[in-house]
Write a structure and sequence with these properties.
The chain is mainly alpha-helical. The chain contains three helices and two strands, in the order ααββα. A hairpin with a 2-residue loop joins strand 1 and strand 2.
């Protein structure tokens, strides 16, 4: 069975254990600060999520209504033909035209963000044999798409924050409940053994002195 040599009651081990205890306490404080920052960030994002979710529901409702109006005015078959002819191949990047995806760092946690401002994108169908209702439907779905992207980014951000909060909490608990108490107990044990040894040594010195006199 392996025995931890730092348990031996020596001044060197006392010094090394105190060093490790100080590092563990410092690490715990840093993790505690990180945890509070991440939790505050999550609360802010959750508030944003509520707002974006409401916007998205309204945008999707409006887009469906606009598309229904275009169907009623132009017919589903006609709009389907226009959609097939005007759409370019689907991009692998769903955010294409909405700014590049980038990341911001919060306490070492990389969080995604994307610019919701859409770059100018001309309508990809001719105005011949189309109506204003189709234009309105197209614009409504473009707005809904921006909000879908925003919601996806927020969902991913909240997932990352919750994941790192759990990891940080786990590490902090390990330091606070296991590592720090272990080093505190070791410091106390070694300190008491050294004091006991010093008392015994002092008693022996006094006894030896008496025997010489």
């Amino acid at each position: 069975m392996h025995m931890d040599t730092l348990n031996f009651p020596t001044k060197r081990n006392l010094f090394l254990t105190k060093q490790r205890l100080a590092l563990a306490r410092k690490g715990y404080d840093l993790l505690d600060k990180k945890l509070h920052v991440l939790m505050n960030e999550l609360r802010v994002i959750q508030i944003q999520a509520n707002g974006v979710w409401e916007e998205l529901k309204e945008a999707l409702d409006n887009a469906h209504k606009r598309l229904h109006g275009a169907h009623m005015e132009m017919g589903i078959k006609k709009i389907s033909q226009i959609a097939k002819c005007s759409n370019s191949p689907v991009s692998d990047d769903f955010t294409d035209g909405y700014g590049e995806m980038c990341f911001r760092s919060i306490m070492g946690v990389e969080l995604p963000q994307v610019n919701r401002e859409e770059a100018f994108s001309p309508i990809k169908y001719t105005l011949h044999n189309t109506t204003a209702s189709l234009d309105e439907a197209t614009l409504a779905w473009k707005e809904a798409r921006k909000l879908i992207i925003s919601w996806a980014v927020i969902e991913n951000t909240m997932y990352r924050l919750r994941l790192h909060i759990r990891k940080t909490q786990k590490r902090a608990n390990a330091l606070g409940n296991i590592t720090i108490p272990k080093y505190e107990a070791r410091v106390k044990y070694i300190g008491e053994r050294l004091e006991e040894r010093e008392r015994d040594e002092l008693a022996r010195m006094k006894l030896a002195k008496k025997q010489r006199t």
